[in-house]
Amino acid sequence: MADLKNPKKKRLNWDETLMNLAILVSKRASCKFHETGAVFVDKNKRIISMGYNGPTEGDEHCLDIGCAKVDGDPKTGKLMRCRGAHAEVNGIINCQDTKRLRGATIYTVLFPCYDCMKALNNVGIAELVYLKVYKRIQDGGAGEELEIESTELAKKRNIIIRKYSGPVFCDFPDDYCVSEDKGKDNRSEWGF
């Protein structure tokens, strides 16, 4: 029953709602090292599509057999290319009609890699809101590197880029987090 003496006084703004939804969607990711989700919305903030990173349909999950790029093939140990499809590409596929994405905004946990930025550019994304910077894992886990080409392309194509600095309301047990987020109370770190 409603507490008539203590009514609700606030609600989430659109950025808070959509970024926290992207964070929640990212928890479906099966990558051991990168966890990202993407939410695409039209100019009226209606959700067009969502996506998260994971292997293509029918392929094996990294959580089950290891990362092809870091752990190698489970039978031979040979380092392979990443078997995952990124959140942005999965979101584009999930929308079913890419014409709906022209002029849309994407909320994404990780800034897109260069390949994803090319796809976002081609479907006509107008604005990108991100939480964290993406760093590509080098073969064998030798290190990480930034992909500056992504930012350069976005700027060249006049895609509006905004870093999300609002509160994160989602907090998950360590089993549901990539290593960089384990043991952290992300709500307080990100301004909650």
Task: Walk me through what this model shows.
The protein is of the alpha/beta class. The protein has six helices and nine strands. The chain has a five-stranded mixed β-sheet. Strands 3-4 form a two-stranded antiparallel sheet. A hairpin with a 5-residue loop joins β1 and β2 (47-52). α4 (114-123) runs parallel beside α5 (148-156). The longest helix is centred in the first third of the chain and has 13 residues, at 14-26. It is globular, with a radius of gyration of 18 Å. It starts with 13 loop residues before the first helix and ends with a helix. The model is unreliable at 185-192 (pLDDT under 50).
Give the amount of beta strand, in percent. 15-25%
Largest sheet: 5 strands, mixed
Helical residue percent? 25-40%
What order do the strands of the largest sheet run in, or round the barrel if closed? 2-1-5-6-9
Mean pLDDT across the residues is: 85
Look at the helices and sheets and give the structural class: alpha/beta
Number of strands: 9
Radius of gyration: 18 Å
Residue stretches low in confidence (pLDDT < 50, at least 5 long) are 185-192
Shape: globular
Order of helices and strands: HEEEHEHEHEEEHEH
| Total count of helical runs of at least 4 residues | 6
Distance between the termini: 28 Å
